[in-house]
């Protein structure tokens, strides 16, 4: 195809005409044939069965006259800057179909190399062979295998596809394909960090990487690559898959401490802040199907600094610990690391004292009907070790289960226990308190081995402890400081107290059925573990106190967007959190970008983006929001998840974000009833939630009688965990009046967003490179899915349409003045910059001058830099053009001055 651009003065556009005639000298404007952006007549593309060139030419000749009145000329911008923003569409009155040709690009020539979508690699390189009414016919590069793709499945490709850059905005084409290719090239060259403007993408290497210190801390502080630490207070928001998040968290926490505290000789607080991570990781991380070291809670770590720049202390806030994991895990997953670390790494004396056994022994006895009570049964019961670790040989054989060792660079159960013990001591726990921690964890493990069986001949319908579980009851009671008989009674019945005219009356013992007793046992285990976790975080904060703080560096580490075959209340809360953070991201990045343009006087229209406010309202709206409806259902005498689901659909039927499971693209979700699930359209994609356990998980309440039982413990620390969070005035009937999980999380998120809004922000997106979790292996489709869930597509669109690269005039002046003679190098920085740009002949749509800096379109600054670093001969001609522009400019100024004087006379 021959494409010609007829440049017209009106509107600064160019009308595109195409000639498919064999006479290459024919003037397409004289042919009278209305052509589309693809070079084909609109009706010919629709009707022609033959896609050959001759057939299209013949159809064009036959239909030109009758279609001439229906077609519209397609106009393209004349400048590269306008061309990059063009979104081609063609409409005619007969079919009103929109034909999209390479979004953000001018129409492609045949033979052009592009990226096409691929289910395995994410994108593959191909060459355009033909264009049809539905898309492109292409040939894969390297194999020439013919393939076809729709228009929206084809993306522009860099001229040099092997070019990699630290900041993706330096590329000429900004789209998902070029971003993925840039990340792949850098990762396979050992570079795990890639920027998109000021957003950092971190890809997990699955091996330990040590920070390099080629210069002193004071020098690194002013390194432009560390610019995100300059603005204080600042928060680093780390989201994504946990393994790279852990790497980023460690890097930012450690780097933040070392970069600022250059004057203090007291390393205790530095070490205590950094060493807190083994504690949080042991009690808050677990193996999931996608990650061997997944964090099942969120945390916001603040590192505070004094006036002189020294570390003053720190504070850790935590959010939404997944307590349900204590009692049950999906097949292939594990409970929290601490349970396995304790079994693997405890000394023989401690092992014997805690009455421990192999991980797979903490299961339901084969003589009983299996239930969901065993706390290690359903999951993976093997140990983890580092690749180069000697842990397998150090763990005694009598502690090994039937499952062999698994290896991971970040998880080692034996060595992890040793690090955990050291970290607990570093956080100020004495030997007695550490033993309390071990006893409590072991007590929870034994509690999970307690089974119940219904008393058939009892008219009251009670239950009792199963015969083969008596030993488990005694072990659990001893480790929790309780009497075994009291624990039995507390588990098999609940105590209610009658009231009359506000006065307390008689205590009544209500027998429980076996399933009710199992639920009470699980609630007790979750409550003990959750409160122990709260206490450990409290002790960490007590070990890093601060009196005064001038500024702080914050690191927010939260799980990224989650979706599985079965999604429950945990994914519901995690994705709600991500919606809030995505909304904050939109406002912070896009709004600040717009404010900067206005402040600098740039004439740029408003930046449009997809607003997810309606999705947040679906969760939070008072009265009909999902969280409020869930709380209302819990307050009913007999709460039922089906009632909650029906009300959720009824109250929010006009909200586009909510739909029924039958609308899901996943088959197993479509098989659910409408009152069994919620399909929510999140910013990162649709997720179908099974609401079966929503009410129970949201309540997470404990029978009053079980709390009274714990308060009878001989361990003061255990008693204090419960008495500090409740009082006798809070107890009515048989439950504690506690705030629901969802409501508490909502308040925590609001406080967190308020805190983030008061600080500078640096966004980090953490990516898992492959599902096998092996070092330096890149799976394109896996990475692409995570980039899409991280909302990078909208960021790329912003950068493509805006001016992502910007440089202060002073920095531009100091960077290039050494390349120029003294006459030019002595100019004022703003005038100096204007001279360079005029002399180089840069397209005015590729840059704009602000008040204090110059702004570049994506990829244009690298072109400018290449021009400025050319050979000396080219610099001479540049100097000549600069002198010409200066003389011309001064002559015009003189003319204006003369005219001004004449007019004033």
Automatic annotation (TrEMBL):
Gene Ontology cellular component annotations, sorted alphabetically: endocytic vesicle; myosin complex; plasma membrane
Protein name: Myosin motor domain-containing protein
Coiled-coil residue spans: none
GO molecular function: actin filament binding; ATP binding; microfilament motor activity
The UniProt record lists the keyword Amino-acid biosynthesis: no
Any one Pfam family match given in the protein's UniProt record, by short name: Myosin_head
One BP term from GO: actin filament-based movement
Organism: Caenorhabditis brenneri
Keywords from the named record: Actin-binding, ATP-binding, Motor protein, Myosin, Nucleotide-binding
Biased amino acid composition, Basic and acidic residues: 64-73
Annotated Polar residues bias: 15-26
Residue ranges annotated for the Myosin motor domain, each copy included: 163-869
Annotated spans, Disordered: 1-85
Keyword ATP-binding set for record: yes
Family indicated by similarity: Belongs to the TRAFAC class myosin-kinesin ATPase superfamily. Myosin family.
InterPro entries named among the record's database cross-references: Kinesin_motor_dom_sf, Myosin_head_motor_dom-like, P-loop_NTPase
């Amino acid at each position: 195809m021959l494409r010609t651009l007829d440049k017209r003065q009106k509107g600064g556009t160019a009308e595109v005409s195409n000639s498919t005639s064999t006479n290459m000298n024919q003037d397409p404007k004289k042919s009278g044939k209305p052509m589309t952006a693809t070079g084909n007549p609109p009706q010919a593309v629709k009707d022609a069965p033959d896609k050959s060139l001759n057939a299209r030419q013949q159809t064009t000749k036959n239909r030109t006259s009758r279609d001439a009145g229906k077609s519209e000329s397609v106009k393209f911008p004349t400048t590269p800057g306008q061309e990059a923003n063009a979104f081609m569409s063609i409409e005619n009155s007969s079919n009103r179909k929109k034909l999209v040709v390479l979004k953000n690009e001018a129409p492609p020539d045949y033979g052009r190399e592009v990226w096409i979508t691929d289910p395995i690699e994410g994108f593959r390189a191909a060459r355009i062979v033909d264009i049809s009414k539905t898309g492109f016919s292409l040939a894969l590069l390297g194999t020439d295998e013919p393939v076809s793709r729709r228009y929206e499945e084809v993306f522009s490709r860099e001229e040099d596809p092997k070019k990699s850059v630290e900041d993706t905005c330096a590329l000429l084409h900004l789209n998902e394909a070029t971003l993925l290719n840039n990340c792949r090239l850098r990762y396979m060259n050992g570079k795990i960090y890639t920027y998109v403007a000021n957003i950092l993408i971190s890809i997990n290497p699955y091996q330990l990487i040590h920070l390099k210190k080629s210069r002193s801390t004071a020098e690194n502080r002013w390194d432009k690559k560390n610019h995100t630490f300059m603005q204080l207070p600042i928060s680093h928001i780390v989201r994504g898959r946990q393994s790279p998040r852990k790497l980023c968290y460690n890097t930012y926490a450690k780097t933040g401490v070392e970069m600022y505290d250059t004057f203090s000789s007291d390393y205790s607080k530095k070490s205590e802040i950094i060493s807190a991570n083994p504690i949080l990781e042991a009690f808050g991380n677990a193996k999931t199907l996608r990650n061997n070291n997944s964090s099942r809670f969120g945390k916001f770590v603040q590192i505070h600094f004094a006036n002189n720049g020294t570390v003053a202390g720190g504070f850790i806030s935590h959010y939404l610990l997944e307590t349900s994991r204590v009692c049950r895990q999906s097949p292939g997953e594990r409970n929290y690391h601490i349970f396995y670390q304790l079994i693997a790494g405890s000394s023989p004396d401690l092992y014997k004292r805690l009455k421990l056994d192999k991980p797979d022994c903490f299961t339901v006895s084969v003589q009983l009907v299996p239930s969901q009570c065993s706390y290690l049964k359903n999951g993976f019961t093997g140990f983890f070790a580092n690749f180069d670790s000697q842990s397998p040989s150090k763990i005694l054989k009598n502690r090994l289960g039937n499952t062999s060792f698994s290896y991971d660079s970040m998880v080692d159960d034996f060595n992890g226990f040793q690090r955990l013990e050291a970290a607990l001591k570093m956080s100020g726990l004495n030997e007695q308190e550490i033993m309390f921690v071990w006893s409590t964890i072991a007590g929870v493990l034994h509690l999970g081995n307690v089974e119940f069986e219904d008393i058939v001949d009892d008219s009251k319908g009670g239950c009792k402890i199963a015969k083969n579980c008596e030993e488990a009851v005694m072990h659990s009671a001893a480790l929790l400081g309780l009497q075994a008989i009291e624990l039995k009674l507390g588990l098999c019945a609940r105590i209610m107290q009658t009231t009359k005219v506000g006065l307390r009356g008689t205590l009544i013992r209500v027998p429980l059925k076996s399933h009710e007793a199992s639920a009470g046992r699980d609630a007790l285990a979750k409550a003990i573990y959750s409160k122990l976790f709260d206490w450990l975080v409290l002790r960490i904060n007590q070990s890093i106190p601060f009196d005064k703080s001038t500024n702080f560096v914050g690191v927010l580490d939260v799980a990224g967007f989650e979706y599985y075959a079965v999604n429950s209340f945990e994914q519901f809360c995690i994705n709600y959190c991500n919606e809030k953070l995505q909304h904050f991201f939109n406002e912070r990045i896009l709004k600040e970008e717009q404010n900067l343009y206005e402040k600098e006087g740039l004439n740029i229209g408003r930046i449009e983006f997809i607003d997810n406010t309606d999705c947040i309202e679906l969760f939070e709206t008072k009265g009909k929001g999902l969280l409020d409806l869930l709380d209302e259902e819990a307050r009913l005498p007999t709460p039922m998840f089906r009632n909650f689901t029906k009300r959720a659909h009824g109250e929010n039927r006009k909200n586009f974000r909510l739909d029924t499971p039958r609308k899901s693209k996943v088959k197993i979700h479509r098989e659910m009833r409408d009152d069994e699930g919620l399909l929510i359209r999140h910013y990162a994609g649709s997720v179908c939630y099974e609401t079966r356990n929503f009410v129970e998980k949201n309540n997470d309440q404990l029978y009053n009688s079980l709390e009274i039982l714990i308060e009878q413990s001989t361990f003061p620390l255990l008693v204090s965990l419960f008495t500090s969070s409740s009082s006798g005035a809070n107890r009515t009937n048989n439950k504690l009046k506690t705030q629901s999980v969802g409501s508490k999380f909502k308040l925590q998120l609001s406080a967190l967003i308020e805190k983030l809004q008061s600080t500078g922000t640096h966004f980090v997106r953490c990516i898992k490179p492959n599902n096998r979790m092996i070092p330096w292996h890149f799976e394109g489709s896996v990475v692409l899915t995570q980039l899409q869930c991280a909302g990078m597509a909208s960021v790329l669109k912003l950068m493509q349409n805006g001016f992502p690269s910007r440089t202060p005039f002073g920095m531009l002046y100091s960077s290039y003045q050494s390349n120029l003679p003294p006459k030019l190098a002595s100019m004022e920085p703003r005038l100096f910059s204007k001279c360079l740009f005029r002399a180089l002949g840069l397209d005015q749509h590729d840059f704009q001058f602000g008040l204090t800096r110059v702004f570049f379109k994506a990829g244009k600054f690298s072109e400018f830099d290449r021009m400025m670093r050319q050979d000396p001969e080219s610099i001479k001609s540049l100097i000549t053009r600069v002198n010409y522009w200066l003389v011309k400019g001064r002559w015009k100024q003189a003319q204006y001055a003369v005219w001004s004087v004449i007019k004033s006379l």
